[in-house]
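I hope you will forgive my troubling you with a question about protein structure. You will find the record immediately after this paragraph.
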Amino acid sequence: MKLSSFHIDGFGALTDIGLEEMAPGLVVILGPNEAGKSTLFDFLAGVLFGFPSRKDNSRYHAPARGGRHGGRVSFVDEAGGTWVVERHAGPQRGLEVRLPDGSEGDEASLTRALAGASSSLFRAVFAVDLDDLGQMDNLESDEVRELLFAASIFGQRRSATKAMKHLADARDELARPRRDDATANRLARELETVRAELAAARQEAATYESLLRGAAAADEQIQALRSQRKTSRDRERELELLETCWRHYCDAGRARLALSLTPEVSGTASLLENGAELRGLTTELSGHLERATKLDDLLRNRASLESSIARRLSALGPGWTRERAMDAHDTELLADSVRTARDRLSALQTDVVSADAVRVQAEALLSECGDRASADDPPMGRVAERAVLESRNAAVAELRDRLSEAERFELEMLADERGKASPLPTPGAADRSARLAVLVDSAFAVAVFALGVVLFARHQTELAMVALLLGLTLGVAAVLVARRELRSAEATAEMSGAPSPGITFGELASDRAELMARTRIQIGELAETLGLEVPPSRVDVERCAAALQQAREARRRLEDLARASSEAEARVARAAEVDRTAQQAVTLEQQSFEAWCRRRGFVAIGPEETLEAIAALADLREQLAALSRVDRAIKGLEGSVTSFAHRCRELLDVVDPGAVRAEANGPDGTGELESMLGRLVRLLDEAADVAARRSQLRHELSNAETALERALGGGVVAAGLRAELAGGEVLEWTTERADLERAIEAVRQAEEDAVRRHQSIAEAMERLATSDRIAELERRQDALEVELDRVLRRYLVLGMARALLQQTLARHERERQPAVIASAADHFRRVTGGRYTALLADAGTDGKQTVRALSSTGEAIDAARLSRGTIEQLYLCLRLGLADSFAHRSVSLPIVLDDVLVNFDPDRAAAVATELAATAGSHQMVFLTCHPHLAEMMLRAAADSDTASQLIELGRVEPDSRQGSLPLLTALPPLSA
């Protein structure tokens, strides 16, 4: 596979940058320090294999300048199909994969396209920086060894290490020391438990006879305890009945005594007979007093309202009465009308001020345009000057054409000297082209001239003059161009026609020389017309054209000033008209408002004063409405007060005639009425209390006697209980009852213990008589022994399978490894210029891989003894060998290198660059560096090895840069071999 493009949405300091086309061979990314090369290095690996999930990971690279965290990478697979992978990190992490056929893919399809390679494998083998070159630990990981050496045991993309781990996990599930959930451990524990239960069951079966005797003794004890508890319960109920009846007995005695001590009250029959009405009047008395007080308040309020209404009528004017005020229009509508008129008047006054300001501004603009026009107007008339400029411009155009003709004639004459004729159009074609040019230019000139006539008829003098002048100029230019084209066509026809039998090439050259002389004469005439030196140069002609262009621009600015002056005059006239109209509108609006005020009875004053008068009218109407309500309330209260007083006098005349006479003679009728009603109510309450008390006592006595009769009933037992009640030994009853409760509780507890013991013995006897537990435990013991034996056999089988698989993997690794080492040795031999001819790899005593380099002298040197640069070259060659092996077995993945040449001397660096460029022919290689000479070295090596290459330049990221100063990414197009 080969990367074809990428785009970064947001990743570290890189935001919204990308590359749409990447070379399939060598891609060199050059940038200074802090340009984002390492960030780009991590971005490519992250999109293909996933971003780190932890933010404290150095490869996380949260966006520092906005944008969504992640981006897009496209690559071409081995079949030529294009894949698009878009991955983002952060809280909205997601992966989108578009397959070559346009359908949607997922992580599994991407993993298949990458031949099962993981992020750790890619970073160990295919993504290399300086830190990776200095160590070999990541090349010894299980994943690298498995995917590169052991994959062929189970087929492509199958894991031998996972298979061995699966076998080990399966063995651990079956049996493992100090692991309680292992199957064999669990079966052994269950077997021990079953054996213990079986021994206990056999011992329990021998206790049946003793259980039978214990059951009989428990039954006898239960019967005796139940009889004792029944006797105690009967006596307890009698004591409870005595305590209950004692309360009723005492209640009856107290009621009888109180009834004898509460005599009936005489002389209150009239009060009790009229008590309901008397209480009703007493209840209504507070309301009567409140109504009387409210009546006095209403009378005072009415007097105040009358005074205020008189003042407000006087303030409104002589024509206002109460009836007119109530019949007037709604005050809110009147106020809205006044506010609307006020707003219109204010707006019209604002329009007057605005119109006056516009007029002053327009007059100032008119004065300015007049000053500028008088200062810039040239002495020559406008129409004549434009005609001169257009004619000189046409002369410049014709002079350019004549100079081009002269140059062409010189070339043709030079070709004639060499015996080669240039193909030219036939005479007939030249003639037709000239006629067509004359017709088109003439028609356009006539159309423009006719437009000028129409504009002149519509009294648009300035536009008409411009159109007439333009039509005249176009006509002259058309004639000049047509004449030039006809001359050129005739000359060309004479020179290009096939020579007749009587014409020679010498005569044809003579004709061309004559045309050349005629053209030079025309050039001289045009140069004199324009005031140029003869013969004129191209530079002089262009300078003359530029001067004419500046003159036309000056003429155009002068015409723009004239138009602006005309528009300013029109604006002054319009502003004056608007000002007059606004003044008239203000006057009419004021007159209309004054007429409106007179029609509604208001003094013709300003809107604000009118609003105050309307507010006063609204207050007057509210006070008139309040006066009406007060009158209605006074009328209702007077009837209620009079009616209550009449009812009180009638009642007092019935119950206490003397009190009525005293009230009639008293100075304050209301106070005497209240005092008399209070005295009668107190007498009524006393009589009612005595009657109610005697009735309550009789009721209590009846209830107590009834309760005693219901509780005791009749018979000998009831008579005995009544005798005990008469004795009144309540304390002894309480003491005896407490003793009985404790005795009953003790008997009940003993009975429950005996019942539980009897039930337990019966259950044990039934369990022993019907139980098949011994047989069941024996069957479980046999089954557990068989299952444990099967598990142990499977444990041995899995262990042997894992050992065989491990031996096979080790053997395959030993046989497969030399191919990888041989490929790496070839790379290392070429890099070192033949100083080291082979590599030897074996496992040390600690199980770690060791690599030794075989020198050209036959000495085997351990890698740890090599120089730092040579070690880095060796480890780089090992990764190239691993990449070759992986590509041979599955697919070719791109190799990403970050400044791996910085520690190499110039000769070794050039050799490594040559080797990398050659490798880029089969593996796409992305080379990142901050050294321009290393980038140039890589590109030169790619060109020497016919490998397609590309250079990408990154600009430095400034520390304080923001969105407007992102890293510069400049990509040169891919260079093919």
